[in-house]
Write a structure and sequence with these properties.
Layout: H1 20-38, H2 44-53, E1 60-72, E2 75-86, E3 92-102, E4 108-115, E5 117-122, E6 125-131, E7 142-153, E8 162-170
Antiparallel strand pairs: 1-2, 2-7, 3-4, 3-8, 5-6, 5-7
């Protein structure tokens, strides 16, 4: 007797009466619901604190920018000095500035971000520096500042960099 996979005279395999596609669809829907249910939600309390402590960048105005470069190993360390004015309503405890350095052709070739420090400038010399967290910049107050940028390549044009206020943190 020869083995036959289907009954003799049959042209198609037997069909199951069980609804497998419906079971697969139900399992997929259940997995989707479980995944969405277990996905972490945004912590609204933490988001609220972040939104309250960061002010728009228009709160600090920068003026009187000057530089003091120092060469070492064909790279420059550049201290940028100037005056910062708090135009907001709350004391500023941190300011992060971005400096865009230009090459001799006037094209921006490098940008660095560094925090601003308060600087007590006496004539052409800096007597002392402090972090803004130690001595915040009060509303309406203008104070000297210093920001130090390191390892500026030799193709820098030697002019003060273009400064942009990236982030401001205020007291609660």
């Amino acid at each position: 007797m020869e083995h036959q996979p289907f009954p003799s005279g049959s042209t198609k395999p037997p069909q199951s009466k069980f609804p497998w596609p419906l079971v697969a669809l139900c399992i997929a829907a259940a997995l989707l619901v479980i995944t969405l249910w277990l996905t972490p939600r945004t912590d609204k309390a933490a988001t609220g604190i972040i939104n309250r402590t960061t002010e728009p960048t228009a709160q600090v105005r920068i003026s009187g920018v000057r530089i003091s470069p120092a060469q070492a190993n064909n790279l420059a360390n550049v201290d940028v000095y100037g005056d910062a004015t708090n135009t907001g309503t709350r004391p500023v405890t941190q300011v992060v500035l971005s400096a865009a350095f230009h090459d001799k052709g006037g094209k921006t070739f490098m940008a660095q971000q560094e925090p601003m420090q308060r600087a007590d400038v006496k004539g052409d010399k800096v007597a002392a520096t402090k972090d803004l967290a130690e001595e915040p910049l009060k509303p309406g107050q203008t104070a000297g500042f210093r920001v130090s940028y390191s390892q500026v390549p030799a193709n820098w044009d030697g002019k003060p960099p273009e400064l942009t206020v990236l982030q401001i943190t205020v007291q609660k």
